[in-house]
Amino acid sequence: MYRLLVVDDEDFIVDGLIDLFEERFPASMEYYRAYSSGEALEWLKRAKIDIVLTDIRMPGMNGLELHEEIIRLWPQCKVIFLTGYNDFDYIQSAMRNESIDYILKTEHDDVIVRAVEKAVYELQHRFESEKLIADAKKRLQTALPVMQKELLWDILNGDVSQAAVAQQFDELNLPLRSDRPVFLVLGRIDGWNGISSPSDRMLLVYALQNIANEYLSAFAYHYSIFYEQARLVWFIQFKEDSHAEENEGDYRQGEQRNLFVNGAMENIQNASRQYLHIPVSFLAANDAVDWYECAEKYNLLKMMLHVHYGMQQELLLSESHLPENPDNRVTRAGIFELRPNKWALLQSCLEKGDMQHFQELFRELVKLIPANRQQWDGLGFHIYHSILSVYFTHLHQSGMTDMFGYDQVMASGTNRTWGETAERLWQMAEAIFERQNNELIDREREVIRKVKQYISANLGGDLSLTRIGEVVGFNPSYLSRLYKQMTGEGLSDYIVAERLQLAKALLAKQHMRIHDIAESLGFDSPAYFARFFKKQTGMTPTEFRELL
């Protein structure tokens, strides 16, 4: 779903265009209204906007000045200038940017619709699959030096001092600065769409990194490394800009910086789904840290992504979503001891809720000892205690320490045959998976409850996906998908139904003026309310009231 912002100082033009687009693009757009350049700028700083349709001549900041802010905040945004003046010279400088179009207010509706369709097409076809794969093959042949990856991996493991970072950055010619803080973003490929060849998978990874480069390079220096078969880490440093330092509200500062990173990750996720056909998840840090603090930050993000949200796909999260639970704190050593071996894979399956692969690994381990063996040897004790360690580590990190009593488990294990013990261990795993699934469902249901509660209390207020996402703490696109997955209906459809239900109830109150009803439902004018009501019911509000 794309976000389209309409900007004009004449209310009827904004409302009329939104009505037109809602009719022509019923389910593919989320619309935002701005009746001044200042209001438009507020939206641009608050949400990732894909298309802006704006008047040129407006009081205060004109359309061209607004365009400069648009390309500064959202370089990939498509801009369509709408004006009553046939003055091409006036926008000639802006037309040098291929991301804009230009139409007259006097043009037929079809011309305006085609301009928006063109912008959507360009957004959808920004990346061509063949070109991505070709670029990926080239990158595969000229892969970045292994030493660069090893250095950054050592930093994430806390094995490099700050002084060594500065020296080795210069030696390895990394495109990052050792004297500036860095943002970390964790990525995870949630599925390979049936691709099993390691080389083909690496091509997709390189293609994903190419997509990220397209969206990140405009505003940041960045570097990413791929590890553990399906995971990535991005190191991001914002480019210095004297203009940015002069503007307190610039996106490179504070919350706007986080918004820009999250917007870029949303674009990368969408492009990966559309062109590479692989789902990816992202988790971004809330703030930049010094290089010597990267290990601690990485551990926190990894725990959050792999433990608390491991069963979900195509996540778009920030560090602020970490559940507030003191049991979730993990020491650096506890994470670092997990290496890419069977124990780590077993733990990973548990974290992600991957019961099928967990069972396969579990069976491989327990079959190493005969099921009827009563007296255990060292291998039996090693497997038994290692599996329990995986369980209890996961339970501690997930805040589920109340599930099993450690003393009881230990006492009931060693006096049974190995087959009986293995069955008991498997029953424990089943219980963990079941509880994880139930807690996930409960969390998602709670999000849906909060969404519906907010909508019910704000039917006359801001019900944009951006605002609802802010209320529940989720990315708007991810929230939209989650809501439809959980309820079977689109969030916008639910909002329309709730507004319509309340509208009918208020119309039944004969003493209420239609003007007041429209205002209480958040419509900017009675005419806009009438168009909405007739579209949904086939009757005007007055006709509906006469039937009561």
Automatic annotation (TrEMBL):
Pfam families for this protein: HTH_18, Response_reg
CDD domains: REC_YesN-like (cd17536)
This protein's UniProt keywords: DNA-binding, Phosphoprotein, Transcription, Transcription regulation
Superkingdom to which the source organism belongs: Bacteria
Alphabetized SMART domains for the sequence: HTH_ARAC, REC
GO biological process: phosphorelay signal transduction system
InterPro entries tied to this protein: CheY-like_superfamily, Homeodomain-like_sf, HTH_AraC, HTH_AraC-typ_CS, Sig_transdc_resp-reg_receiver, Tscrpt_reg_AraC-type_HTH
Domain HTH araC/xylS-type: from-to ranges: 449-547
A GO MF term: sequence-specific DNA binding
4-aspartylphosphate PTM sites in chain numbering: D55
PROSITE patterns: HTH_ARAC_FAMILY_1, HTH_ARAC_FAMILY_2, RESPONSE_REGULATORY
The Response regulatory domain, residue ranges: 3-120
Entries under PANTHER family matching the protein: ARAC-FAMILY TRANSCRIPTIONAL REGULATOR (PTHR43280), REGULATORY PROTEIN POCR (PTHR43280:SF10)
Protein's UniProt name: DNA-binding response regulator
Organism: Paenibacillus contaminans
